[in-house]
Amino acid sequence: MDQSVAIQETLAEGEYCIIAVQGVLCEGDSRQSRLLGLVRYRLEHGGQEHALFLYTHRRMAITGDDVCLDQIVPVSRDFTLEEVSSDGELYILGSDVTVQLDTAELSLTFQLPFGSHTRMFLQEVARACPGLDPATRDPEFQWLSRYRCTEMEPLPRGGNSALGTWPGCARIGGGRYPSGEGRWGLEEARLQGWALLCVGGVVMELPGFLLAEAAAGADPWGSAGGAVRRRDEELEEAAEMSAAAGSRDRDSSGGSHLDNLRPNGKGLFVDQSSRGQDKPENLLTRQTKSKLEITDMVRSSTITVSDKAHILSMQKFGLRETLVKSYLMQKEEDYTYIQNFRFFVGTYNVNGQSPKECLQPWLSHGIQAPDVYCVGFQELDLSKEAFFFHDTPKEEEWFKAVSESLHPDAKYAKVKFIRLVGIMLLLYVKQEHAAHISEVEAETVGTGIMGRMGNKGGVAIRFKFHNTSICVVNSHLAAHTEEYERRNQDYKDICSRMQFCQVDPSLPPLTISKHDVILWLGDLNYRIEELDVEKVKKLIEEKDFQTLYAYDQLKTQVAAKAVFEGFTEGELTFQPTYKYDTGSDEWDTSEKCRAPAWCDRILWKGKNITQLSYQSHMALKTSDHKPVSSEFDIGVRVKNEELYRKTLEEIVRSLDKMENANIPSVSLSKLEFCFQNVKYMQLQVESFTIHNGQVPCQFEFINKPGEESYCRQWLNANPSKGFLLPDSAIEIELEIFVTKTMATKLNSGEDKIEDILVLHLDRGKDYFLSVSGNYVPSCFGSPIHTLCYMREPISDLPLETVRELTLMPLWTEDDGSQLENPMEIPKELWMMVDYLYRNAAQEEDLFQQPGRRLEFEHIRDCLDTGMIENLDTLCILHHSVAEALLLFLESLPEPVICYSAYHNCLECSGNYTASKQVISTLPTFHKNVFNYLLAFLRQLLENSEKNHLDENILASIFGSLLLRNPAGQQKLEMAEKKAQEFIHQFLCNSP
Amino acid sequence: DVLFRLLLIRDSRVGKTCLLCRFTDNEFHSSHISTIGSQGVDFKMNTIEVDGIKVRIQIWDTAGQERYQTITKQYRRARGIFLVYDISSERSYQHIMKWVSVVNEYAPEGVQKILIGNKADEEQKRQVGRKQGQQLTKEYGMDFYKTSACTNLNIKESFTRLTELVLQAHRKELDGVRTRASKELALAELEEDERQTGSP
């Protein structure tokens, strides 16, 4: 969210918030949020000044009501804002940016959020710094005086005090000022408009030009505020919607497992001579998942989530609206037709007089009621007061005189009114057209004294009538016959400096030339030259205007393309309108005896414009000029509402379609996956293909609600995320692999081979993949006592029996069980030990060589089906059986020495008698297994000459298998040593 | 100006994917590959103007199968819901009751619902009587539309209706939007008043 809009609402005219960033002000230990806005102010005499406005704010600032001005730091020559890196601290990507603000008076530290916005902010601030060039003036920050205190103080007039340096910063008492609700009051506008000018060492006071603007009734902030609120709602909605996506993203990063850090690869029974021999569990583990992604941590940070909301709302919406607008513009002819409207354009230099006669001869006699009136005056008031204080009673007088003389056949509504000293422009439309007038803006440009003052210059009103944009300019250009080049320059200045705000503040301001229709009227002051006065008067008498016109400066200047390029003027069929003796139709009889001239002119530019009349009105004698009028039929583009709606709908529909086509979409070769007869530690793989559509997309398996990983532990998708170019495809493998941690629950039915994977496309759809299958229970992962109660091979038992026996509590054995007689030890254990005892007692490096993966699967099947004889007939490595035995012990959910006895055993590891005592407290089956295993190991030691085994080797292998830390995976070296020591005693001593 | 989410809830194969296409792109694909791709969550954007307010709508369509319910509930944060059945499938109609209870359980309060009997063009295969739809409508206090994605019957109408309902339900938040929409007109009226009082 661009919070500069909120700041902008609180600013005065002429002040513009370039960029805003939300940061944290650090003062000692205190941390307070501040909104930092870089504000630019354009000076009347050109150039600009900047200041950093600091606001306290509530939540994310959206409107002016959310912010409260706290402090202003002018961007003066000694102002610096620099990024500081904290020494010795590690730079973390994505961490806040600490910046130091220094001026001669103060020093502040801020933390700004990481990201491009902060970068941009810092760049803009750097650009705003005035630099050290002595040629440029020191900034004075006069404009900030309004903010000095909450009460408006009268500005000191004249004197050097006003030009003194600005105090380094201004702290504002309380309450924000000014309010962003309404337009500026007259009082404020006038004060604001004061400019102090230093002319020849004399300080002069001159009024600014903003009064007319303020009085004109425009409400620029009203519309801007509306736009802001509108955006805000979009944002909140979008943020809400993206919240779901965001939380999903966060979830997905949570599924890291320590297991994944194990370095060995996927293969089973790989011959790795370098691996640690004392850690048999390493032999059979594999890297199951690789979900630990550092990038996830960055992605799931909250900043990114809000950024997402940002992208979803602002940019997209802004873009969309702009697109709709430009398509509408492109298709304008489809839904508009041209309709002629009658425009009346009049100009009158009143020479500072008050209205003394009825204006009807000029405005309404002999014509049909026009649809639009554009009436311009020059020299409305020649008094000093008007010039300096910008206030004149003439304004009201002439406004009334015009309003009363409009055509009596129609009712008119005033659209706009603008005045710059003596240059005034009024715009009326027939009442019934009022609803079709929109985007009305008015501006002034002074080109008089100093090239800026309002004694000469132009005013303009721009508006949209139906679908056509129209700009009406009234100008009073430089006087005197020889000054035609000044006039040309004034025209150019008006064109270049006249800029209208757009409804959308992000769009560049409009200029005069960017309008469909331009009507230019006024006292342009071009004279007739190269003819003496008498000759001129004679030609006028003869009504030889054509000959006379050849000497008209405007004609020659236009012909030379020096001014009014592209404009048209109608034929001059009336005598010059200047200069008469006031109150008569006599030519100027004063000393100066000025030559008559066509000062007052009306020109136009644009298509579909027909001039119907162009005349002066001799009947009016109030001024030394005669008023001029012209009627036009102007073809205006009128919307056919029906067609417009249809076109708009088509555009919106096509944009929707485009947007929907841009939602990533893929097709999957398979959505249902069934894994038959999944066995313990036997990898099963099913693959499918993701075919991408036309939009590049990023896919990822995401977590289901409330789950920490995208799939069950026994499942893995490879790869689980990736990027697809248009029309490309990728093969995904779904792998099932059941290890000791999952086997028991699959045996007991607490877990099932059933899962749904959610394949999520970034900014797009979600696909559900369902995985199902059945698990074949195995003795691996079954508890010791459960196996003792299974007199049949596990595969011969009904699944229900396996479940019940697996869930049977460990200590049920003594309650005179109704179950049939259990065996003393699991038969599967006996099978393996017996096999090794018979075949491998003298095998070299027994328990230290890896087995073969495929052979393990055979051994597992033999044990589970009870085909003991197969074990002997199969030609398998003894090492495979040895490893299977270790695996069997490792996968016991309750170790041979129960978890509850673990700590006792470690404590008495030096004391053989006590150790034996602990063993005697174990549940019977566990005790049996322990004694049986130890007896076997001692047997092996008797063959140590052949098999090279000794007590230490066996203790280190079996210590950590028989004694397992109940706390889980963390292995303490001390504890492990003690566990080995504990087993060691039993290896050295006969029971 | 306003953005919210609407949800299609339905059994599989009640022609909802077609509905989605009709709603958004005004297109009808009769030869739809039905199974592949219908499992999951799909969405499309649509923009309409209702009562002078520009409304951007994300229409979400979630898989109907029971087994996905725990997953799809997270997608149910919608402002309005289309409950869709197929008039040629008695079963899909029976399931509406189930969907209503699911919606009541997971959807946020104040969610607007509308009942849609789709495939109205397949009159010859009709299994659900006209009155049955009306009956549910009464029972749950929902509006009912008989639609056909194939013939474009009532598609826009039902869609606009649900949007209106959602807008009505959020009238308060939207009042601001409305006043701004009429701002330009108000300006012209104001000027006219000024003139009347200004004239003698």
SSE layout and pairings?
The complex is a heterodimer of chains A (991) and B (200).
Chain A: H1 4-10, E1 15-27, E2 30-42, E3 48-57, E4 67-74, E5 80-83, E6 97-102, E7 107-112, H2 116-128, E8 170-171, H3 186-193, E9 195-199, E10 202-206, H4 210-215, H5 220-252, H6 281-284, H7 294-299, H8 302-330, H9 332-335, E11 336-349, H10 360-363, E12 372-378, H11 384-389, H12 393-405, E13 412-420, E14 423-430, E15 437-446, E16 457-465, E17 468-476, H13 484-497, E18 499-500, E19 510-511, E20 517-523, H14 533-541, H15 545-549, H16 553-559, E21 568-569, E22 600-606, E23 609-616, E24 628-639, H17 641-661, E25 666-668, E26 672-678, E27 684-692, E28 697-702, E29 715-718, E30 721-724, E31 729-736, H18 740-748, E32 754-761, E33 766-775, H19 784-789, H20 799-807, H21 827-839, H22 853-865, H23 868-873, H24 878-890, H25 902-907, H26 912-920, H27 924-942, H28 944-947, H29 951-962, H30 973-988
Parallel strand pairs in A: 11-12, 17-20, 26-33
Antiparallel strand pairs in A: 1-2, 1-7, 2-3, 3-4, 4-8, 5-6, 6-7, 9-10, 11-24, 12-14, 13-14, 15-16, 16-17, 18-19, 20-22, 21-22, 23-24, 25-27, 27-31, 28-30, 28-32, 29-31, 32-33
Helix pairs in contact in A: 5-8, 8-17, 21-24, 22-24, 27-30, 29-30
Chain B: E1 2-10, H1 16-25, E2 40-50, E3 53-62, H2 69-72, E4 80-86, H3 90-106, E5 112-118, H4 130-140, E6 143-146, H5 155-169, H6 171-181, H7 183-198
Parallel strand pairs in B: 1-3, 1-4, 4-5, 5-6
Antiparallel strand pairs in B: 2-3
Describe the structure concisely.
The complex is a heterodimer of chains A (991) and B (200). Chain A is α+β, with helices and mostly antiparallel strands and 991 residues long.
Report on the architecture of this protein:
Chain B: It catalyses: GTP + H2O = GDP + phosphate + H(+). The complex is a heterodimer of chains A (991) and B (200). Chain A has 991 residues and is an alpha+beta fold. Helix content of chain A is 33%, strand content 24%. Among the domains of chain A are: 4-206, PH-domain like (Roll), CATH 2.30.29; 219-250 and 297-330, no CATH class; 332-642, Deoxyribonuclease I, Chain A (4-Layer Sandwich), CATH 3.60.10.10; 894-991, Rho GTPase activation protein (Phosphatidylinositol 3-kinase, Chain A). Chain A has an 8-stranded antiparallel beta sheet with strand order 5-6-7-1-2-3-4-8. In chain A, strands 13-14-12-11-24-23 form a 6-stranded mixed beta sheet. Chain A has a 6-stranded mixed beta sheet with strand order 15-16-17-20-22-21. Chain B is an alpha/beta fold. Helix content of chain B is 42%, strand content 24%. In chain B, strands 2-3-1-4-5-6 form a 6-stranded mixed beta sheet, sandwiched between helices. Classes of the chains: A alpha+beta (991), B alpha/beta (200).
